[in-house]
Backbone:
């Protein structure tokens, strides 16, 4: 709870104006906290008289032996015969964190017929790979994958565990963290080590990207994060890198799952994994009809990208839901995002504003999409996109 | 069929804006809404009830005004509403939230199915559903995009994956989190609205659910926010000059690194 010492409070209102959630007000000369306080601590830091404190904060709830936890782990996501690119990106940042902490970097590989994947994890930075390769693990299930990872973590006690913020990572990692009583920060975009105590500083967007929050797990281990695809940098493949592969046999109990996989269907239409695409060509209601997406696919094909969409056109049935970007769709961070006929509603922007470069094509020069765009073209997309395609082709030829 | 749906009240995204001068969230006129994904969870629960019989209870942890979203769910066809509310829950992260909700579910009693939204749009964590299932020791399926078949004993589901979808079978009791594609929520009926006004909302405090003070609110949260700050501002938009062809040419120049 937030405690205001009325003896010390001078009613200056600094807390009122600095509260990110707008729940503090100065009433009758001192600060009063309303409902909705998230105990983020901004007011505590800003209060010069020191009148605000958080009850319960910093209290040693679990006198856990933190020092006995050591090493950085990355979950190496393996599906349909390949590693998810985000796992290699995590080895990149994992390597940095491990080097700062002066500890080894390990990867956990769970699946069936994983082939060269363990070698690949080593070539991208892992010192050790724990490989659990079993025919019963051919399909992802939360229970089996979760039970195996939980037991490995209990046994080896890593201080940090990172996984991709993918459909799989965001599904089973929360279960693992709950069982371990560990803190888990979702969808991180930055990771760093705090100098003073070696804690993992996990930074992530909140409120649709309107604020950034840095989170630590002071009293629990491991410190766990899921990390967005495309925000970390993978190390180059180095076939000479040496590492150890440790084979782990799952127990029969670990393989029991109450959810049965009947089939696993790959979407044959387009590439729906828009979170892994470097370039996205996104279409909105300005495309006029489902037909308009033909143009989007052409541009995407020319750039080697994938096609994304707004909710409005998904709801209209022009393209399927996995392509939807935004608050009730996917969050993407491609290198290039080309928004065509998209107004730029906050719910859409929330899902794409961390793209490296944003291009907007819209005939309404006042469309809010231009506020987040790096490059904007005002005009009819049916005129602009074909011209853009042609100029790109010409540029490539010359 | 006894179904419990967990719903959260969240600030409406279109109102949540950073004040460029003070770098804080502008607070004027911030409306609260039912988390959009949870509306789909309520709808799915009501549809399953209509198909298989039974009752739907909606459950929320939050401040007293979260009653609003519970009433909204009643107007859309839910039967009972429970609000777990206590100052001691403030500052709860997803670990403490799933603990609190699990305790509340145990007070509500037996159930066949628990439904959650995929994620809450304020924090976007998607962790409470799986956490809740682990605490109740029941199987869970996240990101359900379709219920293909429902019987008294279990469900056949489609769960959205990054590259397509998986078809899964699960028996009750189980927990699902749902995505927007699963259904189109109905508008409240007049009868529903009347009921929503009158319905009695059961209130549970930390003591009522027998919560361990060390597991709730801020003290019970393994994660702690140490800093909030505005995102890096995007650089100003480049202005192209000339006719459309020239502008497109300049755009292609600028996009050179990506070609
Ligand atoms: C709870 C909630 C959640 C939501 N979640 C999402 C979400 O996840 N993702 C999402 O995208 N939206 C979401 N929305 C919807 C969002 O508010 C907008 O309605 C939606 O993004 C608008 O889509 P649009 O830009 O395609 O359509 P519009 O807003 O209709 O914009 C179309 C644009 O195309 C331009 N245009 C038209 N014709 C042409 C042309 N020939 N050439 C060039 N430009 C043209 C117009 O000037 C206009 O700016 C959500 C809304 C709510 C309430
Ligand atoms: N305070 C809460 N009360 C009730 N349900 C909640 C609460 N917080 C989260 N949930 C449920 O958990 C889902 C995921 O939330 P989150 O993990 O916060 O993204 C939501 O869609 C709700 O169904």
Residues:
């Amino acid at each position: 709870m937030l405690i205001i010492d009325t003896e010390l409070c001078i009613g200056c209102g600094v807390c009122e104006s600095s509260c990110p959630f707008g729940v503090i007000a100065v009433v009758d000369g001192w600060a009063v906290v309303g409902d909705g306080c998230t105990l983020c601590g901004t007011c505590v830091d800003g209060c010069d008289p020191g009148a605000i404190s958080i009850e319960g904060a910093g209290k040693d709830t679990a006198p856990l032996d933190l020092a006995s936890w050591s090493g950085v782990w990355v979950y190496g996501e393996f599906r349909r015969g390949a590693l998810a690119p985000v796992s290699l990106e995590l080895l990149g940042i994992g390597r940095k964190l491990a080097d700062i902490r002066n500890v080894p970097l390990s990867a956990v590989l769970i699946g069936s017929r994983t082939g060269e994947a363990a070698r690949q994890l080593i070539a991208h930075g892992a010192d050790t790979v724990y490989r659990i390769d079993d025919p019963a693990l051919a399909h992802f299930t939360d229970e089996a994958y979760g039970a195996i990872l939980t037991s490995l973590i209990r046994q080896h006690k890593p201080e940090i565990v990172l996984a991709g913020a993918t459909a799989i990572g965001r599904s089973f990692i929360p279960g693992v963290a709950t069982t371990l009583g560990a803190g888990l920060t979702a969808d991180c975009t930055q990771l760093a080590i705090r100098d003073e105590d070696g804690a993992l500083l996990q930074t992530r967007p909140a409120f649709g990207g309107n604020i950034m929050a840095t989170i630590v797990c002071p009293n629990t281990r491991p410190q766990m994060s899921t990390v967005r695809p495309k925000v970390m940098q993978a190390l180059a493949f180095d076939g000479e890198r040496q590492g150890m592969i440790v084979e782990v046999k799952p127990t029969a109990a670990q393989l029991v799952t109450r959810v049965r996989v009947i089939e696993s269907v790959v979407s044959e239409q387009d590439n729906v994994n828009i979170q892994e695409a470097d370039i996205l060509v996104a279409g909105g209601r300005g495309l006029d009809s489902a037909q308009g997406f033909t143009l989007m696919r052409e541009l995407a094909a020319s750039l080697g990208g994938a096609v994304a969409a707004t909710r409005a056109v998904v709801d209209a049935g022009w393209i399927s839901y996995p392509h939807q970007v935004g608050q009730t769709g996917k969050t993407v961070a491609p290198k290039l995002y080309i928004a065509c006929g998209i107004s730029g509603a906050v719910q859409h922007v929330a899902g794409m504003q961390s793209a490296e470069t944003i291009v907007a094509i819209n005939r309404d020069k006042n469309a809010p999409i231009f506020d987040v765009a790096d490059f904007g073209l005002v005009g009819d997309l049916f005129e602009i996109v074909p011209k853009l395609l042609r100029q790109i082709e010409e540029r490539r030829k010359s | 069929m006894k179904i419990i749906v967990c719903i959260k009240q969240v600030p409406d995204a279109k109102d949540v804006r950073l004040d460029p001068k003070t770098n804080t969230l502008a607070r004027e006129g911030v409306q609260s809404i039912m988390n959009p994904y949870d509306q789909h969870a309520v709808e799915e629960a009501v549809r399953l009830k209509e198909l298989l019989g039974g009752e739907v209870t909606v459950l929320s942890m939050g401040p007293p005004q979260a009653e609003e979203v519970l009433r909204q769910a009643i107007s859309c066809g839910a039967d009972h509403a429970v609000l777990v509310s206590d100052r001691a829950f403030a500052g709860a992260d997803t670990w403490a939230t799933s603990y609190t909700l699990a305790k509340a579910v145990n007070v509500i009693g037996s159930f066949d199915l628990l439904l959650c939204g995929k994620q809450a749009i304020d924090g976007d964590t998607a962790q409470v559903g799986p956490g809740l299932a682990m605490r109740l020791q029941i199987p869970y399926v996240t990101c359900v995009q379709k219920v293909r078949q429902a019987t008294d004993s279990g469900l056949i589901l489609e769960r959205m994956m990054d590259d397509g979808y998986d078809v899964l079978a699960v028996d009750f009791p189980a927990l699902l989190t749902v995505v927007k594609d699963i259904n189109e929520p109905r508008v409240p009926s007049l009868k529903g609205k009347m009921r929503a006004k009158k319905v009695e909302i059961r209130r549970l405090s930390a003591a009522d659910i027998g919560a361990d003070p060390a597991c709730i609110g801020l003290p019970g949260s393994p994660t702690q926010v140490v800093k909030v700050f505005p995102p890096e501002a995007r650089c100003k938009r480049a202005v192209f000059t000339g006719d459309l062809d020239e502008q497109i040419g300049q755009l292609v120049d600028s996009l050179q690194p990506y070609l």
Remarks:
- The pocket of flavin-adenine dinucleotide (ligand 1) is lined by residues A 284-286, 310-313, 324-329, 341-343, 345, 347-348, 351, 361-364, 367, 380-382; B 36 (CB under 6 Å).
- Residues 66-247 of chain A form a domain with the Rossmann fold fold (CATH 3.40.50.620).
- The longest strand of chain A covers residues 259-266.
